[in-house]
Amino acid sequence: MEGGVPEADMSAFRECLSLSWKNPYVLRLAFSAGIGGLLFGYDTGVISGALLYIKDEFKAVDRKTWLQEAIVSTAIAGAIIGASVGGWINDRFGRKKGIVIADTLFFIGSVIMAAASSPAILIVGRVFVGIGVGMASMASPLYISEASPTRVRGALVSLNSFLITGGQFLSYLINLAFTKAPGTWRWMLGVAAVPALLQIVLMLTLPESPRWLYRKGKEEEAKSILKKIYPPHEVEGEIQALKESVDMEIKEAESSEKINIVKLLRTSAVRRGLYAGVGLLIFQQFVGINTVMYYSPTIVQLAGFASNRTALLLSLITAGLNAFGSILSIYFIDKTGRKKLALISLCGVVFSLALLTAAFRESEIHSPMVSAIQSSQFNNNNTCPDYKTALNSAEWTCMTCLKASPSCGYCAADDKLLPGACLIANVDTKKMCGNDHRAWYTTGCPSKYGWAALIGLALYIIFFSPGMGTVPWVVNSEIYPLRYRGVCGGIASTTVWISNLIVAESFLSLTEAIGTAWTFMLFGIVAIVAIFFVIVFVPETKGVSMEEVEKMLEQRSVQFKFWEKRDSGSEKH
């Protein structure tokens, strides 16, 4: 899933580098736990490339769009389960054990996927990996935040988010590395077992979170860990601060038992906070970001680039831009402000999706024709059955050929834009087409507008990542009153996973049902609605204390002049 970078300015990163030099133990804690983020990112990215080769090996997957969506989305379903039980495991057994359990599940899932003999077994492996990812998504940042010095906590938690985008980038590199290896996708999915095993070993050498230990009454053990994390002159102050914080947390937990959904919605500040926070996260998913992350190579093939290797290479650029955008967001989030940055981001997303819509629509309209002469050059038994019996075969294009049943493929002419052959899609016809040094298409068609689609895809990531990739997470961390933060955060997290699942499960079906162009147009319409939503419902929380945010939400939830800082005084609007 696409994540955000927690708020941390550049001074915090400079402080972090200085502290790491003086006390490497802190960085070792953060990096060891942060491998969970790497696994999260790796799983998000690797399936997009592996899917190309899974389709080649399992013909049922190639023929059935729902199977492709199931292979992608069952990991998300597993993550929902993992995230829902992860909180309980973290509190009951500790953050360290939570991470180790998540890694063990990830390791088991990776081995099952690498050895899968059928799509069903592959899906079982994806569920295991998903549960591990869901648990790690909660345990890793929690462990890092509780085992980090206060002044660099934001920067070290951001390390986890950098490792998520870094894991996505790494997955594309590994996908490329194994394109020529026997077993291709098995290596791509199986290699994830290595960092999972590494993290298990590293975590076994590290202590439990001092905060968890203190809450469980193991005060001396917690103090000994704090002495390793903080300089001697700060230890006593931090121990006292931890004691006060844990006491307050216990009191809040006792009172939060009385909180129910009706009470939440009756409290105006909480209700409006949920509108803004949860709404932002829903729009973050439904403008299509995770379709790009999960299906990037497939989208590149839909744009007219037939080669699996070429599709992976071009998708690597997308992953790199996403990682770069995550770094940019650290600078812009406080300089520009949350609301303004979200609006700039969404405007860019609308433009990018409009370009993608136009590029794919032009590709569909100007799809190369099917030539009876070209098709007859291959054995008649290899010609697409629907094409042979069609009354309007002279009107057939590459797009018509790819939609035929049983599954057919398009063998392009030497000049890809000239008429080509429509053949039954199987290993033999693919090989025959390749022997003539001609490109074989089963996902998209040759197009002179393919590069325009790639530019649109790159612009989409450039605009999305620094803004809508980050802002919803930052706003959700700031907008809820302290007492309700745990409950509201749980609602927000569940919303993200469910929205992510819906989008991942429906993207390929949508492209089949209404076409790629109209699918991206649908995302564009959602992005336009999101712009109005941000203007109307989302307050600017930059430089505003938690108390002032609560006052703003109590007063009103609408502000059209988003460039003006909202008054947080007592004046009612």
Automatic annotation (TrEMBL):
It is found in: Membrane. Its main location: membrane. One of its GO terms (molecular function) is myo-inositol:proton symporter activity. The chain crosses the membrane at residues 29-54, 66-86, 98-117, 123-144, 156-178, 184-206, 273-296, 311-334, 341-360, 449-475, 487-510, 516-538. It comes from the Eukaryota. One of its GO terms (cellular component) is plasma membrane. It is a multi-pass membrane protein. The keyword Protease does not apply. Pfam families: Sugar_tr. Residues 29-542 form the Major facilitator superfamily (MFS) profile domain. Keywords: Membrane, Symport, Transmembrane, Transmembrane helix, Transport. One of its GO terms (biological process) is myo-inositol transport. InterPro entries: MFS_dom, MFS_sugar_transport-like, MFS_trans_sf, Myo-inositol_Transporter, Sugar/inositol_transpt, Sugar_transporter_CS. Belongs to the major facilitator superfamily. Sugar transporter (TC 2.A.1.1) family. This is Major facilitator superfamily (MFS) profile domain-containing protein. It comes from Glycine max.
